[in-house]
Design a protein that fits this description.
Length: 503
């Protein structure tokens, strides 16, 4: 409920401001002009000028660096006709912060230029407003529509409202941007940086050596468990030694048979089939001996007081521990899983329709929810040559350095893969854009207090900027901060039509 009440209060505030403006400003200006310099914005309103009649000027001055009102300074207005002598009007201080008022009487008709010179503490500027028309005494009033009628489709957002909030207006910038598409990805362990440590023999996990805990850092060759062999021969050292000796004998016999078959075949006394069968038997015997030799090596190097020392073959972090001290284990049973996450793999599935556009896979980046910043893969590991029939995607794997351990295996990521570059593209800060039913809009300043809701076509987005493909010119000024309040002002204009100022 509170999320609904706050915008409603702001909306009522805008509508109230509009009513207050109408009640306090009885004389609506016919002409409105906005001029920008590198330092200032001048928004001036004045009634249509006529020779011999007072002409009132209302000048709004804004510092472009802060978008706050000019609060102090001497303002000098110099009116210069096309022919004749110029004259000057001086304003010592603003009537209100940012608002200067002046009244003058023109003696001759014609076209005037007004030079506005601001001299303040640590600040000065000079602004030229050209084309001020002054009609003669008997000249008929030109039928010029007032600004509100002429620009009825625009959004009114007064300078007083702009000055009260965190507000900024800027021209779109020209930058080199990368064209890219974004897909979902997942961080996974590197294949040779993950190991499952298994029990070399059946036995009981000794309580004299506490098992490591999940999340503990493990060094390579560190003793992670002690196994006390079972007391029965068939489950312990004796059985292993017997099986090892028997397997070695089978390899020796198979080797002799292979050598005999090879000599007979070379003497053309036996068919080739015999040597092939002997070779196959020898390979099988060696395959059976290999794990037994590794187990015996562990026995020779890893025993302590008749207990088997289980060592980690990898430096990393313990991530799984399905056993506990005192538990009986079988030979080959998994004891724990250790992962080294200093390097991870990033797996992403790229749409097959985008593969042809890619020039380089090295220009990829990714973000992870909950972690600030953007990460870049170190290198491309592999591209699958097979398209997934269901998703119509191609699996791709990148290598990612993770020296601080901030990234965790199993995290999901948004992967941005670049397909090229656009030189000197027109860009806006992303906070300047508003989305409505899949379309994007920005608020363009048409005059000092008039804004237009403009639809734009957006290209690639990233690093806080969006590429504007259509809808904006580089000389137009866009609300880049505080646009939400302009959006609310567009709603308030539906409640209360009208415009003016608090002066």
């Amino acid at each position: 409920m509170k999320y609904f009440i706050m915008p409603l209060i702001v909306l009522m505030f805008f509508a109230g401001c509009a009513r207050k403006h109408n009640e306090t400003d009885q004389h609506e200006a016919a002409v409105k002009r906005t001029v920008w310099t590198q330092k200032s914005e001048l928004f001036v309103e004045y009634s249509e000028a006529k020779v011999g009649e007072p002409c009132r000027f209302l000048l709004h001055l804004t510092y472009l660096e802060t978008f706050k009102p000019v609060t102090i300074g001497l303002l000098t207005l110099t009116f210069t006709p096309k022919s004749g002598e110029p004259f000057t009007v001086t304003i010592k201080n603003p009537a209100k912060p940012g608002i200067f008022t002046a009244e003058t009487i023109f003696k001759n008709p014609g076209r005037y230029a007004m030079k506005v010179v601001l001299a303040g503490k640590n600040f000065s500027d000079e602004i030229l407003v050209d084309g001020i028309e002054v009609r003669g005494v008997n000249e008929k009033v030109r039928n010029l529509p007032v600004a509100e009628e002429k620009e009825g489709h625009l959004i009114s957002f007064s300078k007083e409202q702009q000055w009260r909030i965190d507000f900024k207006i800027a021209k779109p910038a020209r930058k080199t941007v990368s064209t890219a598409f974004v897909v979902a990805g997942e961080l996974i362990p590197v294949s040779n940086n993950e190991v499952t440590v298994s029990a070399p023999l059946a036995g009981i996990l000794s309580v004299s050596k506490r098992l490591p805990y999940i999340g503990q850092k493990i060094d390579k060759d560190e003793v992670v468990a002690l196994i006390e062999p079972a007391p029965h021969r068939q489950d312990g050292f004796g059985q292993l030694s017997a099986e090892y000796a028997e397997s070695k004998n089978r390899v020796a016999l198979a080797q002799k048979e292979y050598d005999r078959a090879k000599r007979l075949y070379e003497a053309k006394a036996a068919p080739r089939k015999r040597i092939e069968e002997a070779e196959l038997a020898l390979d099988s015997a060696k395959a059976a001996l290999d794990p037994l030799e590794r187990a015996m090596e562990i026995m020779r190097k890893g025993t302590s007081e008749n207990r088997i020392m289980v060592r980690s073959p990898l430096k990393g972090t313990l991530v799984e521990l399905p056993v506990s001290n005192g538990k009986a284990v079988e030979a080959g049973q998994p004891l724990m899983r250790i992962i080294n996450t200093s390097i991870l793999w990033l797996r992403a599935n790229l749409p097959v329709t985008e593969i042809g556009r890619l020039k380089s896979f090295h220009e990829a980046a990714f973000t992870v929810a909950g972690i600030n910043g953007e990460f870049k893969p170190k290198r491309l590991v592999a591209i699958n040559d097979l398209v997934d029939a269901k998703s119509r995607t191609v699996p791709v794997v990148f290598e990612v350095n993770n020296p601080t351990g901030a990234l965790k295996a199993g995290m999901f990521a948004d992967v941005s893969v670049q397909t090229g570059h656009v030189e000197k593209a027109l860009v806006l800060p992303e906070e300047a854009l508003f989305e409505d039913e899949g379309r994007f809009f920005a608020f363009v300043q048409r005059e000092g207090e008039s804004f237009e809701r403009r639809e734009v076509k957006v290209g690639t987005r990233g690093n806080g900027y969006a590429h504007i493909r259509e809808g904006l010119g580089e000389d137009e000024r866009v609300v880049t901060k505080g646009g939400y309040y302009v959006k609310l002002a567009s709603l308030s204009s539906r409640i209360q039509q009208g415009h003016g100022h608090e002066h």
